[in-house]
Amino acid sequence: GTGDAIRAELKALKTEIKTALIADWLKTAPKSEASDEADTSDDNLQNFQWFTQGLTKTKAGEFAITETGLRIYPGGYFSDLISSKDRAVLFSQRFECPEGTLWFRVAGNSGVKAKYVVQNYPRTGTIHKAVVLKDAKDEEFKWRPLELDFWKGDEVFLQITTAADMPAEFTNDRSWFGITDVRITKDMPPPDAPAVSTASPHQLITAWQNNTLSNAQAEALNALVQAKKLSLGSIDLLIKRYRELEAKLPAPTRVPGVIEADAKDAALFVRGDHKQPSDIVPRRFLDALDPTPFKTTGSGRLELAKHMADMKRNPLTARVIVNRLWHHVFGRGIVATTDNFGKLGELPTHPELLDFLAQRFIDSGGSIKETLKLMVSSKAFQRSAHASEAATQKDPENKLLSHWSIRRLEAEAIRDSIVTLSGKLDTTLYGESVGSGDPRRSIYVKVIRNALDPFLATFDAPVPFITRGKRDVTNVPAQSLTLLNDSKVIDWSRNWASDVVNDGKNRTDDVRVRQMFRQAYSREASDDEVKQSLAYLAVSQKESADQAREVAVQEEKISALNRQIAAILDPARTMLQAERKLPATPTDLPEALAEWTFDKDLSDLKGHLNLELVGSARIENGALIVDGKSMAKSGSLPKRLTAKTLEAWVMLDNLTQRGGGVLTVQGKNGVLFDSIVFAEKTPAHWVAGSDRFNRSELFEGPAETEATTRPVHVAVVYQADGTITGYRDGKPYGRTYRKAPAAVFEPDASQILLGCRHGSPAGNKGLSGRIFRARLYDRALTAEDIAKTARIESSTITEADILAALTEPERQQLKTLQSQRDTLNQALEASRTAMSTDTPKAQAWTSLAQSLINLKEFIYLR
Q1: Exposed/middle/buried for 280, CB within 10 Å: 0-12, 13-18, 19+?
Q2: Distance CA 158, CA 162 (A)
Q3: How far apart are CA 64 and CA 639, in angstroms?
Q4: Prediction pTM value
Q5: Sequential DSSP letters for 753-805
Q6: Rounded Cα distance, 468 and 446, in Å
Q7: CA 128-132-136 angle, 5° bins
Q8: What's the pLDDT tens digit per position in 459-517?
Q9: For residue 798, is pLDDT > 70?
Q10: What is the DSSP string of 717-754?
Q11: Of residues 473 and 73, which shows the higher confidence score?
């Protein structure tokens, strides 16, 4: 594939780089007499038998192209000879742990661990020690010790892995290690230092050219490179080409599994107690079926798999497979306990049929497709779902298949059918897994054991901890409530309703209702169903219109209160600003891609992204004023943005609002976005908003308390690797985190919003407040940069200062107005939560679509 082609090209480039370096170095290195230096290299890794995955042992002289230059290695195991994206595992055979100290001569970076593993326990901690290689200082080969006395007599093995191959501890996409020596000493002196080469630079280069470097010579040559006594300047272009090509190398995908290594038979633990080992049990198949020990020096896993898959020697496999296929086709297996064919399982209802199907399956070469075709073309599959009176009395569970047994749809089918109705189903085959909100088929929805998709889990999708041949089937209130309240179902219902209503065919409502019944149920609606649906639409539309009027009244009352509050605060702030000598604005500010000050108009001071007002937004007293249902938006971005910084000075109308965006960069379709958001996930806290929280986590900074009485400076810095940092008033706000790779915003397809999280200012996406200045940067600013830019609108005026400048009557009036505003805001929030952001008509049709979906998904599968 593409990765193999890139890897082959990288190997060829390495050869070209080595040839060019040697030719250049030999021109400048002084010639010397031939060296009589003996090769004293020792292979100190031979004291252990090593098992590897992703790397092989190399001779001295192998090298790696790094982010900062080049490293030449002695003999040993190295994981980064092509790329630090590559992953590798190295471990020894098991041995009885002696007393003394374990010494690794190892180098690496980015979370690599060199350790001993006791009794196969994979983690490290209080008593399971490891050498951790995590930063630049660990990239130098040196001896690193671990004490072994605590584990004397236990079975251990040695292990070193790249970060991505550590169970449950993955932290970095890139990491690397190299190991040249391992020793165990009893009296704990440091091992002898490696031999030091006395060869001249010319001799070292010649030996590298002839592939005759000793370990000591390789380390001496590498030391000259790191000390810059041998320059890489002549191959700058080659190294640049290498790095550009290496960046395109796809990161490998690993599937958790077990690597074959040394193996031995294990003891039986009495009643599962590891402290009571009994007789040694040889590697073999199930004792009841075939107790013959496997003839192997390996783990026996391959032999076990072959034995299980050999259906002529083991007919149980074929019987289990066809029984599960029968279960999925007919809703009940011939053996009802699909996971238990033993004594505690149920007897087959049709034993001869089970034998027949198993033999057909074996004869077909194990063809699941042919077996399913046989089942669905049978008369049993074609039977009516109506049971006769005799069948109901004699066989109420329909074990004898006198008629078809109806059953509930499974979770994945429910989700797929809803997405299909929405018109958004993505039927693309293959590719990466997706989040639950993605419109791809459910088989592509990501499964994380400790964060299962709540929609699928509600409808009995099994928890992936053990094999489940038969799912639970429940009918609980949470399922109906999910179909009514889940945000994804609401969005899909809205899409379905929108397609029906806005199809441009100018049809009557009763025709549209009949179309929805055909789409949902594959049948015509009855006249009574159409009548009920139209009545439901009328009632829903009236309720939505009444709610919208009530919200508009509440919003106007809040706007009036905000104007009264501003009339009290603004004169006091202006007076204080005039009285105080504010710090001078720094002169060495980082250059912004775009900047808006709102002194006179909506123009971008840099000339790239002029704004236009949307809704009731306006400019007043040097600020952009937005009210939760208005915003300002720009035209297209002038360039591509990955690394970026968003920065704004904002004053909020209230601290109870939830989810409004201050400054947003988004795709023009409103789906992909990054934003400075107030209180979307946690009340009164700033957050870096993103599409479906893909890059959003809590900064865990302090709650906002001052933004209603003075402008606060907020900024979010996005690194190219996805690292995100928040700032408030020029200082770090909470923690820095990385949740996912950075979003990429393409020019001409992306824009800027102020006062809105993304899309349009509906629901809780709009901000209510005043934005005094905003800046957009096409790079990630440093903490020092942010500390400087925060002083552009610098003000030492605090909330306490402003309150002190007011008269007592003004303070009392302010307190009363703010209390009234907070009460109205709470009522407004409740009203907005209870209503949709759509028009009353669109909301009514969406509600009808949800009702039809709710009924549809509780219809049983024929």
Answers
A1: exposed
A2: 14
A3: 35
A4: 0.59
A5: EESBSSSSS-TT-B-EEEEEEEEEESS---HHHHHHHTTTT-----HHHHHHH
A6: 18
A7: 175
A8: 989 888 888 888 888 888 888 888 888 888 888 998 899 899 888 788 898 999 999 99
A9: no
A10: EE-TTSEEEEEETTEE-S--EE-SPPP-B-TTSEEEEE
A11: 73
